[in-house]
Amino acid sequence: MEHKNPARLARNQCLSTDNWMSKYDKSEMEVWVEHPPANRGNHEPKIHKIKCKMTIKDVSAATMYDVIHDGQYRKKWDPAMLDSFDIARLSANADVGYYSWLCPKPIKNRDVVTLRSWQVTDDEYIIINFSVKHPKYPPRSDIVRAISILTGYFIKPTGPNSCTFIYLSQADPKGSLPKWVVNKASQVLAPRVMKCVHKAGQNYPEWKQQNSPDQKPWLYPEQNTLAMMDPAELLIQRADSLENVDECSKVDAQDSEDSS
């Protein structure tokens, strides 16, 4: 299974300003979407690219990195999460996992199976994932299987207790999502989730003290008890092999409501 250096791709896109259009900019937070091709009518292109940047002045980069990794803690702070679990380990800094999330009604909920990897250098933390096919976790009938083409977190310290936190998502949600859904995602949902992440960072040190404070397998691979898996058993999940769900008819009323 090949994937061209996704960590470098994610880092470059996190820091790039070309072709990104600002959708939200206030209170130390910015959200951009990539310029969509012209003349697509009411429906957005299949691939949705969104990027969020937070300037955090009261939480260290190391703490924010732990927050994103800590699956137990995520259940406490992630308002969109339906279910999340690790499936298998691929190496000291890569694993496969499942995540499902709530979508605004009447859109169907989504899920993904992704290969996640991470790296830490002296002054940068990077976590990235992309969709894979796992033989034991095929698409379910009650949830739409979406595609993470490249999702990443880029965290850079700006001081001992402050950092820049960037989230990048390049995804195919599978389905013909109307414009109001995409706009709501970039202008309402993304800032809301980023605020939750920031608050999670503020509360994490105290929570972690009470919950296995020394257990951080993402920093100490020897603590990882997940079963090992051969990466050769995985395939990159291509969007065209999954069913496209047309949800437009369900949301016409909401669409006209939002544009009025």
From TrEMBL:
Query: Which SMART domains does the record match to this protein?
Result: START
- What InterPro entries does the annotation carry? STARD10_START, START-like_dom_sf, START_lipid-bd_dom, START_lipid_transfer
The UniProt keyword set, sorted, is: Acetylation, Cell projection, Cilium, Cytoplasm, Flagellum, Lipid transport, Lipid-binding, Membrane, Phosphoprotein, Transport
The GO molecular function terms of this record are: lipid binding
Looking at the record's lineage, which domain of life comes first? Eukaryota
UniProt domain START: residue ranges: 27-206
Any Pfam family from its record, for instance, is START
The question of whether Cytoplasm is a record keyword is answered with yes
Q: Which GO terms describe its biological process?
A: lipid transport
Q: Which PROSITE patterns match?
A: START
Q: Which SUPFAM superfamilies match?
A: Bet v1-like
Q: What main location does UniProt list?
A: other
Cellular component GO terms, alphabetical: cytosol; membrane; motile cilium
Residues forming coiled coils: none
Task: Kindly list the places in or outside the cell where this protein is found, as annotated in its UniProt entry.
Answer: Cell projection, Cilium, Flagellum; Cytoplasm; Membrane
Concerning PANTHER family, the annotation shows: PHOSPHATIDYLCHOLINE TRANSFER PROTEIN, START DOMAIN CONTAINING 10
| Descriptive protein name | START domain-containing protein 10
Q: Which organism is it from?
A: Seriola dumerili (Greater amberjack)
